Amino acid sequence: VQSETGKAPPPPQKKKKKNASVQNGENGRVSHILTSVIEELSLMFDSKINGVGVLYKLLNTRWLQSLVKVYECLHQFVRRQPVPITPQATAVLREVTEVLREAPQSADVKELKRLLRSPHFKAFLTAHDVVAQKDFDPVLPPLPDHIPENEEAMRIVCLVKNKQPLGATIKRDELTRDIVVARVIHGGLADRSGLLHTGDKLVEVNGVQVEGLEPEQVIHILAQSQGTIMFKLIPISERQVHSQTTLYVRAMADYCPLQDPAIPCADAGMAFRKGEILQIVDQNDALWWQARKLSELSVCAGLVPSNHLLKRKQREFWWSQPFQPHLCMKNTISTVCRKIEEDMLIDEKCVEAGKSHLLLFPLCCTKEEVYGYNERFYIAGFRRSMRLCRRKSLSNQLSCYSRCPSSCYSSVASPYEEVVRYQRHPDDRHRLIVLVVIGPSGIGVNELRQRLIGINPNQYRGAVPHTTRPQKNYEEEGREYHFVTRETFESMVCSYRFLEYGEYKDHLYGTSIDAVRTVLDEGRICIIDLEPQAIQGARTHELKPYVIFIKPPSISCLMSTRKHARIITEYYVNLPFKEEDFQEMEETAKKIESQFGQFFDNVIENGSLQDTCVQLLSSVRRAQDEPQWVPANWLCPDSQS
Ligand SMILES: Nc1ncnc2c1ncn2[C@@H]1O[C@H](COP(=O)(O)OP(=O)(O)OP(=O)(O)O)[C@@H](O)[C@H]1O
Fold first, then answer.
1. 443 CB less than 6 Å from ligand 1?
2. 61, 144, 147, 427: which one has the fewest Cβ atoms less than 10 Å from its Cβ?
3. Ligand 1: does its nearest atom lie under 6 Å from the Cβ of 566?
């Protein structure tokens, strides 16, 4: 133990003089013990025992000794069981004030008058009288003379209603036809009182018998009541005691209680959006859980469908949609791309021009700065042909995802994902950073990724993609691409070694997990862009991806910031943006956010390029250095979602 300042305390005056405040309380047991301990400590002061000085200082502090004194005084009073001298202290105060008014106005009299007039003193005497007159016990109605032997024990519960709801729901018991408390909402007024429990039978509310009333009529009485509400109830005989474990989950679906006819009480329900972190505080009911939003932990919980129920609702919803042939990304991407190839008729020159612009994007830093020799530094990434190919596949995938009744998408299977707080240890590998690409957009993902890597190519890197197309004479193996045969590529696909892949003009292109691993193993931060459909495949315990969605700003902001920007279309490169491009950008972003928002750790609006870069950089840093919510099975693979 070290003192906070690190300085040694002043040497004690051994046994010469006891601390005055301690001496005063020497008759009391605690102060007596305290005095002996201090004396003992002063003897050990020179023995260099770690912590002696701190303890000596602490025990000698005035506040501690005052506390001991207060404790001893209270202790004496507890033993004496004091009775009030008068239950009318406020009347005495009035008399004294009267007398003082007539008395000669000396300084003492003036001071006394001031003290007696002070609101605190008056409130203190009022409180004294309430206690002295025992005015705090509730006035109970007199017991009837003849109580039948089988009369059940009743409880009278008074709750003072303030602006918040009572936090309990009632229902009619189907068997007994009684009105009972259906559930008590965690953190609500009823729960905090500890007096109402699920299963308690209501007999009276504010003096009105509830027998024969409908639950809605009882609710009406409650709604009309102001101030104190008195319940007369028969407590449930065997109250179930549940040991609750708080669970944190990420909502993988949206929920709105007002649109759910099945919810037992819509007012008690809690709406949530996919991606929000919920604290599940009660899972006693198999169908309806109680939860709070992480952003609103102070308010009382609300009802949400249980995992099982929400899953059922989702399935019902999916089945109720018109049937569409179901396409899963990985099975169909080649077919989709071939189809595009037939349709697109891309001008070969345009594609080549695009490639040299994008793939060999010259950065502000040269290899001289990075590696020590003077060559341009290249950022590895998808070529433009692949980006164009992606776009078509994306527009096809959306219809598949939105109408697919089977569990081709695992979020359908699990509407809540259990999450835990995770902070990367400085010695651990960095988390993979994924920027979400959203098809025919030009939102700026590529631009931002390149700028970020350009800021510090030693720290940030892209993953080198694989391709089956022949190597060109200016290309280097492992720099622009890993050049592999079609057989090798296909065998990698079969063994799930690609995060994302596609085909263009009979050549396959893809980002492999191995390529990401290589960057991470070098101690760098790997930044890749992925289509939203591919995020799920990247969400593994090993890569722990942090997913950033780059979103377009308002159309007016796009118009003012994209004056010199260039869009890539299927037929042209370097084409200025038109208003319809911005509209399409906005619509696509909305669709993607509503379908995949549950996977986004951060959403950044790309208005001013400079501001976005700053936000992106700090988001990437936060992902690596600050605690974040991640799926529980990334940390403990046994946990269930
Ligand atoms: N904030 C911005 N302000 C101005 N121009 C921008 C901004 N962000 C991107 N741009 C420009 O917009 C154009 C399209 O950006 P980029 O190619 O990065 O889009 P993208 O999201 O990668 O789209 P895609 O992959 O579909 O081509 C580029 O000319 C880029 O320089």
1. yes
2. 427
3. yes
Per residue in 538-591, pLDDT (tens digit) is 999 999 999 999 999 999 999 999 988 887 665 656 778 888 889 999 999 999
Q: How far is the CA of 336 from the centre of ligand 1 (A)?
A: 25
**Domain 252-320 -> CATH class:** mainly beta
440 Cα: distance to centroid of ligand 1 (angstroms) = 11
Of 318, 484, 343, 319, the closest CA to residue 402 belongs to 318
Which residues on adjacent β-strands are paired with residue 234? Answer: 201
Report residue 632 as tokens.
Answer: 């529980």
Compute the distance from residue 447 Cα to the ligand 1 centre, in Å: 5
* Ligand 1 centre distance from Cα of residue 394 (Å): 18
User: Is a pLDDT exceeding 60 seen at residue 76?
Assistant: yes
470 alpha carbon, distance to own chain's centre: 48
**CATH H superfamily, domain 329-406+421-633:** P-loop containing nucleotide triphosphate hydrolases (3.40.50.300)
Block residue for tokens 């003012």: 560
CA angle 323, 326, 331 (to 5 degrees): 175
Nearest residue (by CA) to ligand 1, atom 27, is 442
CATH superfamily of 155-234: PDZ domain (2.30.42.10)
Q: Which segment of 93-102, 329-338, 536-545, 582-591 scores lowest on mean pLDDT?
A: 329-338
> Same CATH topology for 155-234 and 329-406+421-633?
no
pLDDT tens sequence across 251-303 = 998 999 998 888 888 888 999 999 999 999 999 888 999 999 988 876 789 99
Q: For ligand 1, is residue 562 a contact (CB within 6 Å)? A: yes
The values of phi and psi at residue 360, to 5°, are: -105, 45
The domain spans of the chain are: 20-80, 89-132, 155-234, 252-320, 329-406+421-633
Q: What is the ipTM of this complex?
A: 0.94
Using CA atoms, how far residue 391 sits from 122, 333, 336, 394, 596, in Å, is 77, 11, 10, 5, 16
